[in-house]
Design a protein that fits this description.
Spore Coat Polysaccharide Biosynthesis Protein SpsA, Chain A, 2 domains, seven-stranded mixed β-sheet, UDP N-Acetylglucosamine Acyltransferase, domain 1, Bifunctional protein GlmU, alpha/beta, transferase
Protein backbone atom coordinates (compact mmCIF):
# COMPACT_ATOMS: atom_id res chain seq x y z
CA UNK A 1 0.00 0.00 0.00
CA UNK A 2 1.06 3.58 -0.75
CA UNK A 3 -0.02 6.79 0.99
CA UNK A 4 -0.92 9.66 -1.34
CA UNK A 5 -1.71 13.10 0.07
CA UNK A 6 -3.47 15.36 -2.42
CA UNK A 7 -2.31 19.00 -2.18
CA UNK A 8 -2.53 20.22 -5.77
CA UNK A 9 -5.45 22.66 -5.48
CA UNK A 10 -5.30 26.44 -5.68
CA UNK A 11 -7.76 27.01 -2.78
CA UNK A 12 -9.72 29.78 -4.48
CA UNK A 13 -12.27 29.93 -1.65
CA UNK A 14 -9.52 31.23 0.64
CA UNK A 15 -8.14 33.82 -1.78
CA UNK A 16 -6.41 36.22 -1.37
CA UNK A 17 -4.63 34.38 1.50
CA UNK A 18 -3.86 31.36 -0.70
CA UNK A 19 -2.83 33.19 -3.86
CA UNK A 20 0.79 32.87 -2.76
CA UNK A 21 0.45 30.37 0.12
CA UNK A 22 -0.49 26.73 -0.55
CA UNK A 23 -3.42 25.82 1.66
CA UNK A 24 -1.83 22.61 2.92
CA UNK A 25 1.06 24.69 4.32
CA UNK A 26 -1.03 27.25 6.19
CA UNK A 27 -0.16 27.40 9.91
CA UNK A 28 -2.51 25.92 12.48
CA UNK A 29 -0.94 26.58 15.86
CA UNK A 30 2.77 25.80 15.82
CA UNK A 31 2.54 23.47 12.78
CA UNK A 32 1.16 23.64 9.25
CA UNK A 33 -1.85 21.59 8.12
CA UNK A 34 0.26 19.02 6.30
CA UNK A 35 2.42 18.41 9.39
CA UNK A 36 -0.60 17.07 11.26
CA UNK A 37 -1.34 14.61 8.45
CA UNK A 38 2.29 13.51 8.12
CA UNK A 39 2.47 12.87 11.87
CA UNK A 40 -0.52 10.53 11.56
CA UNK A 41 1.13 8.59 8.71
CA UNK A 42 4.26 7.84 10.78
CA UNK A 43 2.59 4.94 12.60
CA UNK A 44 1.89 3.19 9.29
CA UNK A 45 5.44 2.44 8.06
CA UNK A 46 4.36 3.07 4.45
CA UNK A 47 5.84 5.17 1.64
CA UNK A 48 4.25 8.62 1.67
CA UNK A 49 3.83 10.79 -1.43
CA UNK A 50 2.51 14.36 -1.64
CA UNK A 51 0.94 15.48 -4.92
CA UNK A 52 1.04 19.20 -5.70
CA UNK A 53 1.36 21.56 -8.67
CA UNK A 54 4.32 23.28 -10.28
CA UNK A 55 3.18 26.74 -9.13
CA UNK A 56 3.54 25.81 -5.45
CA UNK A 57 6.32 23.21 -5.86
CA UNK A 58 9.07 25.39 -4.34
CA UNK A 59 7.07 25.83 -1.12
CA UNK A 60 6.59 22.08 -0.75
CA UNK A 61 10.24 21.39 -1.57
CA UNK A 62 11.31 23.73 1.22
CA UNK A 63 8.79 22.24 3.65
CA UNK A 64 9.73 18.67 2.68
CA UNK A 65 13.45 18.97 3.48
CA UNK A 66 14.49 16.30 6.00
CA UNK A 67 11.02 14.73 5.86
CA UNK A 68 10.59 11.14 4.74
CA UNK A 69 8.21 11.94 1.88
CA UNK A 70 8.41 12.19 -1.92
CA UNK A 71 6.81 14.97 -3.95
CA UNK A 72 4.85 14.36 -7.13
CA UNK A 73 4.60 17.58 -9.18
CA UNK A 74 1.77 17.96 -11.69
CA UNK A 75 2.61 20.31 -14.54
CA UNK A 76 0.07 23.08 -13.88
CA UNK A 77 0.55 26.73 -12.98
CA UNK A 78 -3.01 28.07 -12.84
CA UNK A 79 -6.42 27.15 -11.44
CA UNK A 80 -7.90 26.61 -14.93
CA UNK A 81 -5.14 24.12 -15.83
CA UNK A 82 -5.20 22.03 -12.68
CA UNK A 83 -5.90 18.35 -12.56
CA UNK A 84 -8.70 17.40 -10.23
CA UNK A 85 -8.19 14.87 -7.46
CA UNK A 86 -8.92 11.89 -9.71
CA UNK A 87 -6.75 13.28 -12.51
CA UNK A 88 -3.89 13.71 -10.06
CA UNK A 89 -4.58 10.22 -8.73
CA UNK A 90 -4.30 8.86 -12.26
CA UNK A 91 -1.01 10.69 -12.81
CA UNK A 92 0.34 9.26 -9.54
CA UNK A 93 -0.76 5.80 -10.66
CA UNK A 94 1.25 6.19 -13.88
CA UNK A 95 4.36 7.21 -11.90
CA UNK A 96 4.09 4.87 -8.93
CA UNK A 97 2.37 1.80 -10.34
CA UNK A 98 -0.68 -0.22 -9.38
CA UNK A 99 -1.21 -0.83 -5.67
CA UNK A 100 -3.69 -0.27 -2.87
CA UNK A 101 -3.71 3.47 -2.10
CA UNK A 102 -4.53 5.36 1.07
CA UNK A 103 -5.61 8.76 -0.31
CA UNK A 104 -5.87 11.79 1.98
CA UNK A 105 -7.00 15.31 1.14
CA UNK A 106 -4.18 17.71 2.05
CA UNK A 107 -6.52 20.28 3.63
CA UNK A 108 -8.00 17.74 6.02
CA UNK A 109 -7.61 17.84 9.80
CA UNK A 110 -9.15 14.86 11.58
CA UNK A 111 -9.07 13.24 14.99
CA UNK A 112 -8.86 9.53 14.19
CA UNK A 113 -5.80 7.29 13.96
CA UNK A 114 -4.83 6.17 10.46
CA UNK A 115 -3.62 2.90 11.98
CA UNK A 116 -7.13 2.29 13.34
CA UNK A 117 -8.58 3.30 9.97
CA UNK A 118 -6.43 0.78 8.08
CA UNK A 119 -7.20 -1.92 10.63
CA UNK A 120 -10.80 -1.70 9.35
CA UNK A 121 -9.71 -2.18 5.75
CA UNK A 122 -10.70 -5.63 4.44
CA UNK A 123 -9.87 -5.26 0.76
CA UNK A 124 -13.01 -3.24 -0.07
CA UNK A 125 -13.02 0.51 -0.75
CA UNK A 126 -13.13 2.27 2.61
CA UNK A 127 -14.04 5.91 3.28
CA UNK A 128 -13.93 7.90 6.51
CA UNK A 129 -17.30 9.46 7.39
CA UNK A 130 -18.31 12.03 9.99
CA UNK A 131 -21.75 13.00 11.27
CA UNK A 132 -21.87 16.75 10.77
CA UNK A 133 -25.23 16.81 12.54
CA UNK A 134 -26.88 19.47 10.37
CA UNK A 135 -28.72 18.96 7.08
CA UNK A 136 -27.98 22.51 5.92
CA UNK A 137 -24.24 22.05 6.46
CA UNK A 138 -24.37 18.63 4.80
CA UNK A 139 -25.31 20.31 1.49
CA UNK A 140 -21.69 21.47 1.16
CA UNK A 141 -20.23 17.96 1.17
CA UNK A 142 -20.54 14.44 -0.18
CA UNK A 143 -23.44 12.90 1.73
CA UNK A 144 -23.37 9.21 2.61
CA UNK A 145 -26.34 6.95 3.25
CA UNK A 146 -25.38 3.97 5.38
CA UNK A 147 -26.69 0.55 6.18
CA UNK A 148 -24.57 -0.40 9.17
CA UNK A 149 -21.04 0.27 7.94
CA UNK A 150 -21.90 -0.26 4.28
CA UNK A 151 -22.36 2.71 1.93
CA UNK A 152 -25.61 2.25 0.01
CA UNK A 153 -25.87 5.73 -1.50
CA UNK A 154 -23.58 8.72 -2.04
CA UNK A 155 -24.52 12.15 -3.36
CA UNK A 156 -22.13 15.03 -3.88
CA UNK A 157 -23.40 18.37 -2.52
CA UNK A 158 -27.10 17.43 -2.64
CA UNK A 159 -29.86 20.05 -2.48
CA UNK A 160 -31.78 17.72 -0.15
CA UNK A 161 -29.40 15.54 1.88
CA UNK A 162 -30.66 12.11 2.87
CA UNK A 163 -28.47 12.03 5.99
CA UNK A 164 -25.94 14.14 7.89
CA UNK A 165 -23.10 11.60 7.43
CA UNK A 166 -20.48 13.11 5.12
CA UNK A 167 -17.32 11.88 3.42
CA UNK A 168 -14.19 13.51 4.83
CA UNK A 169 -11.49 13.07 2.22
CA UNK A 170 -9.76 9.96 3.57
CA UNK A 171 -10.08 6.83 1.41
CA UNK A 172 -8.54 3.44 0.75
CA UNK A 173 -8.85 2.31 -2.85
CA UNK A 174 -7.82 -1.31 -3.54
CA UNK A 175 -5.86 -2.25 -6.67
CA UNK A 176 -8.93 -3.33 -8.62
CA UNK A 177 -10.56 0.06 -8.04
CA UNK A 178 -7.37 1.95 -8.92
CA UNK A 179 -7.39 0.07 -12.22
CA UNK A 180 -10.76 1.72 -12.96
CA UNK A 181 -9.48 5.31 -12.60
CA UNK A 182 -8.45 5.74 -16.29
CA UNK A 183 -11.85 4.43 -17.43
CA UNK A 184 -13.64 6.88 -15.14
CA UNK A 185 -11.73 9.81 -16.64
CA UNK A 186 -12.03 8.57 -20.23
CA UNK A 187 -15.80 8.54 -19.84
CA UNK A 188 -15.67 12.29 -19.18
CA UNK A 189 -16.89 12.11 -15.59
CA UNK A 190 -16.40 15.03 -13.19
CA UNK A 191 -12.93 15.02 -11.71
CA UNK A 192 -13.70 14.84 -8.00
CA UNK A 193 -13.66 12.05 -5.39
CA UNK A 194 -17.35 12.36 -4.56
CA UNK A 195 -18.46 11.74 -8.12
CA UNK A 196 -15.95 8.89 -8.38
CA UNK A 197 -17.54 7.25 -5.31
CA UNK A 198 -21.00 7.67 -6.88
CA UNK A 199 -19.73 6.07 -10.10
CA UNK A 200 -18.19 3.14 -8.22
CA UNK A 201 -21.49 2.45 -6.45
CA UNK A 202 -23.29 2.44 -9.81
CA UNK A 203 -20.71 -0.06 -11.05
CA UNK A 204 -21.61 -2.35 -8.15
CA UNK A 205 -18.39 -1.77 -6.20
CA UNK A 206 -18.83 -2.44 -2.49
CA UNK A 207 -17.85 0.53 -0.31
CA UNK A 208 -17.49 0.48 3.46
CA UNK A 209 -17.57 3.39 5.91
CA UNK A 210 -15.30 4.11 8.86
CA UNK A 211 -17.24 6.25 11.34
CA UNK A 212 -15.47 8.62 13.71
CA UNK A 213 -16.34 11.53 15.97
CA UNK A 214 -14.45 14.18 18.00
CA UNK A 215 -13.29 16.63 15.29
CA UNK A 216 -12.88 17.08 11.55
CA UNK A 217 -12.07 20.23 9.59
CA UNK A 218 -12.00 20.77 5.85
CA UNK A 219 -9.95 23.97 5.65
CA UNK A 220 -12.03 25.43 2.83
CA UNK A 221 -13.13 28.69 4.44
CA UNK A 222 -11.90 31.27 6.91
CA UNK A 223 -14.39 30.04 9.51
CA UNK A 224 -13.23 26.41 9.34
CA UNK A 225 -9.59 27.54 9.41
CA UNK A 226 -10.11 29.59 12.58
CA UNK A 227 -12.16 26.85 14.23
CA UNK A 228 -9.35 24.37 13.54
CA UNK A 229 -6.93 26.77 15.23
CA UNK A 230 -9.15 26.87 18.34
CA UNK A 231 -9.36 23.07 18.48
CA UNK A 232 -5.71 22.24 17.84
CA UNK A 233 -3.91 25.08 19.62
CA UNK A 234 -3.59 23.61 23.10
CA UNK A 235 -0.46 25.27 24.47
CA UNK A 236 1.27 28.59 23.84
CA UNK A 237 4.41 28.65 21.71
CA UNK A 238 6.25 31.94 22.12
CA UNK A 239 9.63 32.37 20.43
CA UNK A 240 12.19 35.15 20.83
CA UNK A 241 10.10 38.30 20.80
CA UNK A 242 10.08 41.84 22.15
CA UNK A 243 7.20 42.51 24.53
CA UNK A 244 6.17 45.63 26.42
CA UNK A 245 5.75 45.38 30.21
CA UNK A 246 2.23 46.75 29.69
CA UNK A 247 1.19 44.13 27.14
CA UNK A 248 -0.84 41.06 28.08
CA UNK A 249 -0.75 37.56 26.60
CA UNK A 250 -3.85 35.37 27.11
CA UNK A 251 -3.01 31.74 26.23
CA UNK A 252 -3.03 29.77 24.08
CA UNK A 253 -1.16 31.73 21.44
CA UNK A 254 1.64 31.26 18.92
CA UNK A 255 4.01 34.21 18.53
CA UNK A 256 6.88 33.66 16.10
CA UNK A 257 10.41 35.01 16.38
CA UNK A 258 11.13 38.67 15.79
CA UNK A 259 7.61 39.82 16.66
CA UNK A 260 7.22 43.01 18.69
CA UNK A 261 4.26 43.32 21.04
CA UNK A 262 4.29 46.97 22.07
CA UNK A 263 2.27 49.35 24.22
CA UNK A 264 -0.87 48.07 25.94
CA UNK A 265 -1.57 45.31 23.45
CA UNK A 266 -3.59 42.22 24.37
CA UNK A 267 -2.80 39.06 22.37
CA UNK A 268 -5.06 36.00 22.64
CA UNK A 269 -6.63 33.75 23.28
CA UNK A 270 -6.30 31.75 20.05
CA UNK A 271 -4.01 34.09 18.16
CA UNK A 272 -1.21 33.29 15.72
CA UNK A 273 1.30 36.11 15.18
CA UNK A 274 3.83 35.50 12.40
CA UNK A 275 7.53 36.34 12.23
CA UNK A 276 8.61 39.98 12.52
CA UNK A 277 5.13 41.35 13.05
CA UNK A 278 4.71 44.58 15.00
CA UNK A 279 1.61 44.84 17.17
CA UNK A 280 1.18 48.14 19.02
CA UNK A 281 -1.69 49.16 21.33
CA UNK A 282 -3.92 46.53 19.69
CA UNK A 283 -6.14 43.63 20.77
CA UNK A 284 -5.94 40.43 18.70
CA UNK A 285 -7.91 37.25 19.41
CA UNK A 286 -9.28 34.29 17.41
CA UNK A 287 -7.14 35.48 14.51
CA UNK A 288 -4.17 34.60 12.31
CA UNK A 289 -1.66 37.29 11.38
CA UNK A 290 1.00 36.36 8.83
CA UNK A 291 4.62 37.55 8.90
CA UNK A 292 5.91 41.10 8.55
CA UNK A 293 2.55 42.72 9.27
CA UNK A 294 2.14 45.93 11.30
CA UNK A 295 -0.97 46.51 13.38
CA UNK A 296 -1.39 49.71 15.39
CA UNK A 297 -4.28 50.96 17.53
CA UNK A 298 -6.64 48.29 16.23
CA UNK A 299 -8.90 45.49 17.40
CA UNK A 300 -8.78 42.27 15.37
CA UNK A 301 -11.24 39.42 16.00
CA UNK A 302 -11.92 36.25 13.97
CA UNK A 303 -9.86 37.57 11.07
CA UNK A 304 -6.99 36.42 8.86
CA UNK A 305 -4.45 39.01 7.73
CA UNK A 306 -1.84 38.05 5.16
CA UNK A 307 1.84 39.02 5.18
CA UNK A 308 3.31 42.51 4.87
CA UNK A 309 0.07 44.33 5.64
CA UNK A 310 -0.35 47.54 7.60
CA UNK A 311 -3.50 48.03 9.66
CA UNK A 312 -4.04 51.23 11.67
CA UNK A 313 -6.89 52.61 13.78
CA UNK A 314 -9.39 49.93 12.78
CA UNK A 315 -11.79 47.42 14.27
CA UNK A 316 -11.77 44.31 12.08
CA UNK A 317 -14.21 41.45 12.67
CA UNK A 318 -14.58 38.35 10.49
CA UNK A 319 -12.30 39.83 7.84
CA UNK A 320 -9.91 38.33 5.27
CA UNK A 321 -7.13 40.72 4.22
CA UNK A 322 -4.79 39.96 1.33
CA UNK A 323 -1.03 40.46 1.34
CA UNK A 324 0.60 43.93 1.18
CA UNK A 325 -2.69 45.71 2.00
CA UNK A 326 -2.59 49.05 3.80
CA UNK A 327 -5.79 49.94 5.58
CA UNK A 328 -6.31 52.74 8.03
CA UNK A 329 -8.84 55.12 9.45
CA UNK A 330 -7.77 58.73 10.00
CA UNK A 331 -5.70 59.40 13.09
Amino acid sequence: MKVLIMAGGYATRLWPITKDNPKALLPVGDKVILDYIIEKTKELDLNVYVSTNRFFAKYFEEWGKNKDIELLIEDTLHEEEKLGTIGALNEALEKLGLDDYLVIAGDNLFSFSLRDFLDRYDGKTLIAVYDIGDFELAKRYGVVLLEGNKVIDFEEKPARPKSTWISTGVYVFPKEVMEMVPQYLEEGNRDSPGYFIQWLLKKGIEIHAYKFDDYWYDIGSADSYLEALKTLLKESQIEEIQISPYAKIIPPVVIKKGAKILGRSIIGPYAYIGENCMIENSDISDSIIFKDTIIRNSTIWRSIIDEKCEIRNLELKKSLVGGHAKIQRGD
